[in-house]
From TrEMBL, chains A, B:
GO cellular component labels: plasma membrane
Localization (cell): Cell membrane
Protein family per UniProt: Belongs to the Casparian strip membrane proteins (CASP) family.
Protein name, as recorded: CASP-like protein
Stretches assigned to the Casparian strip membrane protein domain: 28-175
Subunit structure: Homodimer and heterodimers.
Membrane topology reported for the UniProt record: Multi-pass membrane protein
Transmembrane feature ranges: 31-49, 76-103, 115-141, 161-188
Keywords of this entry: Cell membrane, Membrane, Transmembrane, Transmembrane helix
Species of origin: Deinandra increscens subsp. villosa
PANTHER family to which the protein is assigned, alphabetical: CASP-LIKE PROTEIN 1U1 (PTHR36488:SF8)
Length: 195, 195
């Protein structure tokens, strides 16, 4: 029996490390994407929260009052900050768990399954937040002549710059979440093909 | 050899139909969700496009002009209609492909893999559209005293009712897409566990 077993053994042992290496590589990309998600979500929230700008606005002839522009003046931006904060917290937890999995030498299918479920949910939440903030910020930038909503970005320039950066970063967060979902699905389908 | 083979054969043949039944059940749920997505996206687009309302608005003392409220007055709603139309078209194509798979007796892993990739992408697009339309519609409903954007729903009641229904339906579309992603991931991970 020994001569028959011998050629099979090296084949198996060379295939296993290859699979293992590929799985580890995918896990490293996973961790990198989660860290990117954390960074973009955190910076987006910080930029949005620190966007307050005060300007002296003439309200009547001879009367000028200081008026604030703050993110919490619109429910769309409050939702935006809440959603991005959740994404930030989620990315911390999942990054730590992914790093642990990396140290243990690979992640289980069950863990990947739970991760991709929550990734998809977060994708929906963060994409909706990006859309809501983007829609309202666009009115602030361009105004709307039909409804007589005036643009405010000509007055509050730095405030609008903060908003634009923050919304751009949250778009990056959304795309990162989409890539995380795609990566997980790719890994899961590769596991099926390999068996 | 015959007496040894006999007890194995029924075991195998009873396990295979069970797996097959489960897989067919999942495919039926998949088709049902895709039809739901089609219905909600189509109705949302139709309601949004037919929302035009004309009112006589006093613009100066003694001067009353007819003013329209239409969805294409805001880029957020144009994006909304575009995104939901894409979702509608996508749901038709994937429903037909899923029904074909159902008639053939099951779907391939490769097809599921491609479906869930596009489902996740569509989830992001439709969620962002829902958020954008929702954010702008909320200003229309409540106004914003800080930026002096007046509410318009007190004047254009039926227009706003159309918008609210349409946004609610697109929320259902988003949730349906999330359920489709979850179902596909569940099916993929079950395939791994079964092998």
């Amino acid at each position: 029996m020994a001569p028959i077993d011998t050629p099979e053994a090296p084949l198996k042992s060379s295939a296993a490390p290859e699979n293992h290496d590929r799985s580890m590589g995918q896990l490293v990309v996973d961790v990198a994407l989660r860290v990117l998600l954390f960074a973009t979500a955190l910076v987006a929230v910080i930029i949005m929260v620190t966007s307050k700008q005060t300007k002296m606005i003439p309200v009547a002839p001879g009367l000028v009052v200081p008026l604030d522009a703050k993110f919490d003046h619109s429910p769309a931006f409050i939702y935006f900050v809440a959603a991005l904060s959740v994404a930030c917290l989620y990315s911390i937890i999942t990054s730590v768990l992914s790093v642990f999995a990396l140290m243990r030498g690979g992640s289980s299918t069950k863990m990947q399954f739970h991760f991709v479920m929550f990734d998809a949910l977060l994708l929906g939440i963060v994409a909706a937040a990006t859309g809501a903030a983007g829609g309202v910020a666009y009115i602030g930038l361009k105004g709307n002549s039909h409804t007589r909503w005036n643009k405010i970005c000509n007055t509050y320039g730095s405030f609008c710059f903060h908003f634009a950066s923050s919304i751009l970063l949250s778009l990056v967060s959304s795309i990162t979440l989409l890539l995380l979902v795609w990566l997980s699905i790719y890994v899961l389908s590769k596991k099926i093909a390999r068996r």
